[in-house]
C-alpha cells in the first residue's frame, strides 16, 4: 500500500494513489530422511504505469511492490542471484536481484524447487532451480528474467564458525535487453551473457 498524494501547488506527483501493488508467496517442504525437499511460488504485482504529462514526470501513478524488500530475512532469498540484491551483479546496467529498483515496478512471478541434503550432522548440500518472469513490463520489453541453477555447501566447522560456498548460474532472459525495438551499433539485437557467480562466506556467530 502506498499513501496517496494530494493535489496542490508545487506537487509534481499530484495524483490519486490506490492499492495497485501487492504480493504473496507460498513455500512448502517435506523431509525424507536426510533430504529436505522444498518448492514455492512468489508473486509480486507489477505496476508499470506510464500515464502522466511532461509536467508531472513519467510513471507518476505507479507503486513499487514492497513484498520483495523483505527478502533479507531469508524467506524469499531461495535463488542466490534472482532473489538477492546483495551480490552486486548486473546485466545491461540493471541489478539482477529482484529486490532492486529495476524490477520492483515490473513485479515478479517466481517458481522454484530444490533440496537440501544433510549426509553428515555438520554438512549440508543444497540444490535449487527457479524460473522468473515479470508481471508487467514497459512496451516492447520481454517479461522473461531467466532460469537460475544454484549449488551450495554449508559446513559447520565449530559451533560458532560456519563455512558456506555457493555456485550460481543464471540463464539470462530477454527482459535484460530492455526495449526490444532498440538496436545496437552493429544492427543486431543486444546479445546477453549468462551469469556465473561463485560465493564464499566464513561466518562467526557470537553467543
Overall average pLDDT: 76
Helix content: under 10%
Query: C-alpha Rg, in Å?
Result: 20 Å
Task: List low-confidence stretches.
Answer: 1-9, 52-61
Tell me the structural class: mainly beta
Strand fraction band?
35-45%
Structure, briefly:
With 207 residues, this protein is an all-beta fold. It has one helix spanning 101-104, and strands at residues 23-32, 35-44, 90-91, 94-95, 108-120, 123-133, 144-158, 161-172, 195-204.
Structure description:
- The protein is mainly beta.
- It is built from 1 helix and 9 strands; from the N terminus they run E-E-E-E-H-E-E-E-E-E.
- It has one helix spanning 101-104, and strands at 23-32, 35-44, 90-91, 94-95, 108-120, 123-133, 144-158, 161-172, 195-204.
- The strands form 2 sheets. A 7-stranded antiparallel β-sheet has the order 1-2-5-6-7-8-9, with no helix packed on it. The chain has a two-stranded antiparallel sheet with strand order 3-4.
- The radius of gyration is 20 Å and the shape is elongated.
